[in-house]
Structure formats: C-alpha cells, structure tokens
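Sequence design from tokenized structure. All designs in this work follow the same two-part layout: the structure record, then the generated sequence. An example of the structure record is given first.
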C-alpha cells in the first residue's frame, strides 16, 4: 500500500501540470452561451479571430500566459452555464469596431511627395496570425509605430526553439513549423509579418525570421557553420538535407545560398511577392561591431532592437552594409508603372531620380585595378584616391606651448559621411571624356589636375590626400576636392576629365531617413537637440548604459551609413576570382564608385574646412585625424575648454560644434598630452587609439 508521502507527491505532481482546458466543442458552447463573439474574445485575449477559431476546432492550443487566462474565463463560464442547463438570457453583443480599411498610408518620405502619380500597384493582403503576450517582454519599448493592417504583427520575428516567435511590441506568435519549408509557408500564410514599401513605386518589405541557435537545430540546421572562410562567406553545402528540403518544396535560394542570411523565394505571382528572409544568430548573422551585444540578448529584446531598426531604417536583409544599399534602392526604386500610349497598357518604365535597372561601367580612374575596364584597356593613368583621413602631425611641428598642455581631447563628428550625403549632387549618366576642360564645380566627375603647387599650413593635413601629405604631381580628384582648391583661392587647370552631364541628388531621401533614425534614437536615449553643450556632454557619457538595446540600434544605424557608402565600391570576394573577370557586384546599378568618392571627398573637405576655421578662431591645430575623429591639445578634460564661443555663450559658426545632429561633434576620448606625443613619435595615430576599434573608416564592404 502506498504511503502518505507518495500519495501527496503524486497529487502535487498533478497540481503542477499545465491547466487542462475543456474539449474544443465545449469551449465554443460556453462562449456562445455567454453571448460573446469570437472577435470580442480575441480582443480580450489580445489575439486574433483565427486563433480563437483554432482553439475551438482543436487545431491549436494556447500557451502561457494566455493559457491560464483562457482557462479562468472558461471556468467562470462553466459555473454560469453548466451543460444541459437552461441558459440565461444572452446579453446583446457588444458593438464591434468599424473595420480598418485595407488602404494604408506609409510614413511619408521626401520621395513620396516628388513621385509622379502613375498607376498605383494593387496591395496584396496576407492573412493574420496568432499573437500572444511575450513571456519575456523587453524591458522598455520605443514608441509604437502605426502598423499596416496587411502586416498586423510588424516586420519580423525572432523564433526560439519552443516554437515561440517573438515580434515587435511584445507579441509572441505560435509557430508550429518543424522544417524550413514549413516555416516559410507559415511566415507567408499565417504570421502577418511584413512591412509596407518605403516609396509608392517600390515593393513591400519581405518578412524576416531570425533563428536562435535552438530554433536552428530544431529545423535541422547545424548550430554553427564551420570552415576556413570568413564566417559571413560560409554556406550550407548543396547536398545538405535542409537545402534539399527547400528545393523539393519548390522554393528557391538566391546565389548566396543558405548562409547566415538566407533568402528563400518563389517567383512572384502578379503583384504578390513570395519571399522570406532568414537570419541565423549562431552563424554570426549579426556582426558584433554593428550590433554590439544583440546576439546574446533574449529573443524578445532582439526583436525589439531589430524592430526599431526596421521601423526607422529598413527591415534587415543582410549585414548593415547590405541594408544600407537596399535602403537606397527602396527609397529610389528603379522602375515605375507607366502607360503605353499605343496600347494603353501599364508597363514598367524608368523611375526618374533612380539609377535605373542596368549597371553602368565607371571611368577607368574611378574603377579598381582589377576591374575589366582597367584590365581590358591597359589603363595606366592612375586612380582616384578619395579616402578618409589617416593623418598624424609631424612632432617637429609641435610648439612648446602645445606640449605643455596637459590633455589631448578627441572629437568625433556624428555620422560625418551621412552629413556629406546631404544635398549631394552626383552623376546620373555615363562618364564623358574631355581634354583640357574648364573646371565647373557644378559638374560631378573625375578631374586630372596638378594641385602640388598649393602651399598650405603644414600644421594642418592637406585637404587633397587621405594621408594629409602634400601632393607630388598631377592626380585624379573628385569634383569637391578640386572645388575646395578653388575655394582656397587657387587657380585650377584640369588636364583631362571624365564628367557626368546628367545630375541628381540621388542620396537625399537616404540621408533624410537615416538622419531622422539617428536623431530619434539618440533622443530616446536622452540626447536631444535642446540640451546645452554641457548637458550634451553629460548625456553622451551615459547614453549607452541608459538602454543597451537602443544603443545597439544607434550603432547599427551608424554602421549602415558607412557600410552602405563602402558597398558602392564592393571589391571581388572569394579565392577563385581572377583579375579582369566581372564579379557579381558589378551587375548592380548601385555599383557606383564615383558616388562613393563624392561622399568621401565632401566629408574630407568638410573636415578640413572646420580644422582651418578652428585654427583661425582659436590658434589651435590638431594632433591627428582619423576618418571623422580629430584630436586636439587642450588645457582641460572638456572640449568646452578650447572650442570657440562668442561673448553671448553661443558656439561660433564654422568650427566644431557639439550636438546630436549629423555633422556636429561629440567627445570621443580624453588622454594625457604626453601619451599622445609619445604615440606620434612612434608614428602612431592618437585618434585611432582614442576611438579604440579602428573600424570607423569607410571600407569596401563584402557581403
């Protein structure tokens, strides 16, 4: 006979089991007896009508905490309306809210107002899914953005190993998929995920599913990808079971294959895209430099970080560099619907202001040495060298007064390359070769000109070279660099040039969206435009600790700017590449090294202009410059000790000013002056050490 302890243990085990719900048919009877509609019950459970239907026909079961709430409701109804009893008079159903119309006005952009009103595309409607309240909610939420009724659950979800898909605003969807093809079908048919297009002539954003390590293993994927290549270049082999499953289900993979960022699709039917983007966290999909600490967060917090980024920038489709480039295309779609005058049919036509659908070869000096236009032509005339500053002042040019100052203070320009993209006029047509042209600063292009005779203060870097050294002879320069020489009062006489006659401000909407994202995210971290300079410095010291999730969003926005600019001149990838061959990036209309050169040239010129104005106003000269960071000798630990201010207390225009807006400065670091001089004597750049990581230059991004 069982002992009392054994019996009590068995009873306790029963009590600890999950609540048991009545059979599906009884659930429906109780709701109907109470006179409650499925829509009203879905609203109370913060769910959808389809989810309630699934509960009542046995297709799915609720999970905690909705499970306990639903059981409590059913128990209450069961006490009121027992089976076979005469039901009380049913109360009148509560009036239902007016259905939301299926039209949706997206967040307005500059381009929306400029676009010509051609035929709007039909908007497909995806069915809703099964949300729930997060069991691990994010600690703090950004302001909720209005959701498109076609995508009620936002742009993305983070799938965990237990089938919980964490979305934006704390919702959790129940995902029953156990294979990748099932996951794709669920995402497109039931999840309610996606994002509206950013331009009226563009395309809706594909839903993103981020897989935790546990979710990846559950779906049959390896927890880690191993190999000798860089992590971002690794792919599943073509004979892997998951790849075979995808192809057998008649889905396709892009040329990138199944890697950390896998895009699975079928050809679009009409106006409805069938594409899902996957990101595998344990395969290093989120680079720690761009997304610091995000991969280690809980799924709900990862969803929050990526959701804020998706709302303010774009739903990620790869690295931040890829996302930066995708954002350019999303805001300047290559085509639009135009009506054929002869047939009256709507056809695809060029969208004014975009780069079109066809790639454009650069002029030889704008290309890279391995580019076919260089290799096939035997070009030996040199190349543009428009890169960010990496300059250290010669220690022999330091004065005794400067060496006696106790501190070296680093100033970093907020998203300097983004500021350079504002109102930037770039070429939209093929390059045209011209001999002995008359210089015109309004024409984007590459100019072969001798600027070596220009004499400037050696305590400042030369504005014409990234090394800051004086040019030694004729060289190729972008228009902004030559225009600055003219601004300094020198006569310029180009020997030859490659010019683009058709021009446009291609990057304007890209700049505006990223600027707003950057400023809004800083404001959420307590760094606002109305702060005084002293308050701004104090706020910047602690903004990353205030909310690490939003700090990660801010880092990703900055990486999107620099990576997107760098990707305009993506170099060949892979060991199998041979010089002179075309590589995949060249087939993109956005492979435009001339636009990249224009952004960097303008940013470097802007930096030199501030350096020169600072010297004129304060007599101070920089110790070193790295990309968008400059180090000054200082009598104190704050930039307030040396920045120029008027008698009224307002900052003097023209030099460095503090603030959260792109192009304004923030404090990057403070060190002893002797430390900085010691680095300079060793040929090292103090700015690099102040910034810490050295990843702030505009690189030629890979994937």
């Amino acid at each position: 006979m069982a002992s009392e302890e054994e019996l009590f243990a068995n009873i306790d085990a029963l009590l600890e089991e999950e609540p048991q719900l009545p059979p599906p048919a009884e659930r429906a009877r109780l709701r109907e007896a109470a006179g409650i509609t499925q829509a009203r019950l879905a609203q109370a459970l913060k769910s959808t009508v389809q989810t309630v239907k699934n509960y009542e026909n046995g297709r799915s079961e609720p999970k905690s905490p909705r499970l306990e709430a639903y059981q409590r409701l059913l128990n209450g109804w069961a006490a009121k309306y027992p089976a076979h009893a005469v039901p009380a008079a049913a109360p009148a159903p509560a009036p239902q809210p007016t259905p939301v119309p299926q039209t949706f006005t997206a967040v307005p952009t500059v381009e929306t107002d400029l676009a010509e009103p051609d035929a709007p595309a039909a908007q497909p409607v995806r069915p809703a899914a099964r949300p729930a309240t997060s069991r691990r909610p994010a600690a703090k939420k950004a302001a909720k953005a209005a959701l498109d009724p076609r995508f009620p659950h936002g742009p993305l979800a983070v799938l965990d190993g237990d089938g919980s898909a964490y979305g934006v605003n704390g919702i959790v969807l129940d995902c029953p998929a156990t294979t990748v093809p099932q996951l794709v079908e669920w995402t497109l048919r039931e999840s309610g995920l996606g994002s509206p297009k950013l331009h009226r002539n563009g395309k809706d954003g594909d839903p993103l599913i981020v897989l935790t390590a546990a979710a990846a293993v559950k779906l049959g994927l390896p927890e880690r990808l191993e190999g000798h290549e860089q992590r971002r270049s690794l792919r599943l082999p073509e004979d892997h079971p998951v790849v075979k499953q995808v192809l057998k289900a008649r889905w396709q993979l892009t040329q990138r294959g199944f890697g950390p960022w896998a895009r699975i699709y079928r050809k679009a039917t009409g106006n409805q895209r069938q594409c899902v983007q996957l990101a595998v966290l344990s395969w290093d999909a989120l680079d720690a430099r761009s997304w610091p600490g995000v991969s280690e967060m809980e799924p709900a917090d990862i969803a929050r970080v990526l959701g804020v980024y998706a709302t303010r920038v774009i739903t990620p489709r790869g690295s931040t560099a890829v996302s930066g480039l995708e954002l350019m295309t999303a805001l300047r779609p290559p085509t639009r619907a135009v009506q054929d005058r002869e047939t009256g049919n709507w056809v695809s036509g060029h969208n004014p202001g975009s780069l079109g659908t066809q790639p454009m070869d650069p002029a030889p000096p704008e290309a890279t040495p391995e580019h076919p236009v260089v290799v096939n032509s035997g070009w030996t005339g040199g190349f543009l060298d428009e890169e960010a500053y990496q300059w250290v002042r010669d220690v022999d040019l330091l004065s005794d007064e400067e060496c006696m100052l106790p501190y070296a203070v680093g100033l970093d320009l907020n998203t300097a390359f983004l500021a350079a993209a504002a109102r930037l006029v770039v070429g939209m047509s093929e390059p045209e070769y011209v001999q002995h042209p008359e210089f015109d600063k309004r024409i984007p292009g590459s100019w072969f000109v001798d600027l070596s005779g220009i004499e400037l203060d050696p305590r400042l870097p030369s504005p014409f070279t990234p090394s800051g050294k004086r040019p030694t002879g004729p060289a190729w320069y972008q228009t902004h660099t030559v225009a600055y020489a003219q601004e300094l009062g020198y006569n310029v006489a180009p020997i030859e040039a490659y010019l683009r006659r058709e021009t446009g401000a291609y990057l304007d909407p890209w700049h505006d969206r990223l600027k707003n994202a950057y400023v809004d995210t800083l404001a959420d971290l307590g760094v606002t435009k109305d702060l005084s300079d002293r308050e701004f410095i104090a706020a910047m010291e602690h903004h990353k600790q205030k909310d690490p999730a939003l700090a990660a969003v801010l880092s990703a926005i900055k990486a999107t700017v620099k990576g997107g600019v760098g990707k305009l001149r993506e170099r060949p990838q892979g060991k199998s590449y041979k010089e002179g061959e075309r590589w995949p990036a060249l087939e993109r209309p956005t492979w435009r090294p001339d636009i990249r050169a224009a952004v960097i040239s303008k940013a470097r010129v802007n930096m030199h202009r501030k350096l020169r104005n600072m010297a004129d106003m304060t007599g101070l000269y920089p110790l070193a410059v790295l990309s968008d960071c400059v180090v000054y000798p200082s009598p104190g630990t704050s930039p307030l000790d040396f920045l120029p201010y008027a008698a009224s207390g307002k900052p003097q225009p023209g030099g460095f000013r503090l603030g959260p807006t792109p192009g304004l400065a923030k404090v990057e670091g403070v060190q002893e002056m002797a430390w900085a001089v010691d680095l300079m004597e060793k040929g090292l750049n103090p700015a690099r050490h102040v910034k810490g990581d050295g990843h702030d230059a505009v690189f030629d991004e890979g994937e």
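Confidence is low (pLDDT under 50) at residues 86-143. We note this feature because it recurs in several other targets discussed in the main text.
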